[in-house]
Amino acid sequence: MARANQNETDQAHADVGIVCALRMELAPFLDRCERVRKYAGGDFVFRGGRYDEIRIVVVECGPGYDKARRATQALIDAHSPLWVLSAGFSGALLPEMQVGHIAMADSIVDVHGHELTVELNVSSDPQKGLHVGRFVTSDELVRTVKQKQALAERHQAIAVDMESLAVAQVCRDMKTRFLAVRTISDDLSADLPPEVLSVLGSSGTVRLGAVMGSIWKRPGSVKDLWNLRETARRSAERLATFLDGVITQLYEALH
What we know:
Elements: H1 2-9, E1 16-20, H2 23-31, E2 34-41, E3 44-51, E4 54-60, H3 65-79, E5 83-92, E6 102-110, E7 115-117, E8 130-137, H4 145-155, E9 159-161, H5 164-173, E10 177-186, H6 196-199, H7 208-217, H8 221-254
Parallel strand pairs: 1-4, 1-5, 5-10, 6-8, 8-9
Antiparallel strand pairs: 2-3, 3-4, 5-9, 6-7, 6-10
């Protein structure tokens, strides 16, 4: 009871903190929250609000391991969340995984041989688009089907992203509960367009000049980039729906 009273008066406290690389990944979920406030903390953008009575803080770190690690540290230092989630987009490494499916990690590795186990009492349900297994954290965007197949074989992993291991390691060191929840934004049906590497800036924002340059060099890229945008939007909506249940269950378990 003392902890509950402390939380009610501690305006900085969050029940659940979420680390994402790009705002678009969590935008539909944030739209479901109330009283969302945005502020800058160091190098990162934070957005805090309420999901019913649950206090939520989302930190947008930009793509990559180092940024995710620093953002997670900043999130925990500032808001002491009871749970931290690494959430956002990921690439499928199994042929049965489709765009919009959900992946949850029971372990995470990187391409350098580091590995961390995640306590997770959830089972795969492929018929409902839910896959549980090992994630691999890559140093760079994995664009081609061939690269994804190689990662799947080498690491026995189901999905690839660029941040989850960093978030998990900080949570382990800070004794904070952790989950990795990702939506599949690109599957094994085709390569991502080569322009995706240039149109996204280091912070994850779209570089309009690069977009225009891509269209000038390859007119067909406008269709590819539009399809990529629509796929990302649908994937983010699916993630928001899944997070509804996850966050509610986490909060109920804690209280």
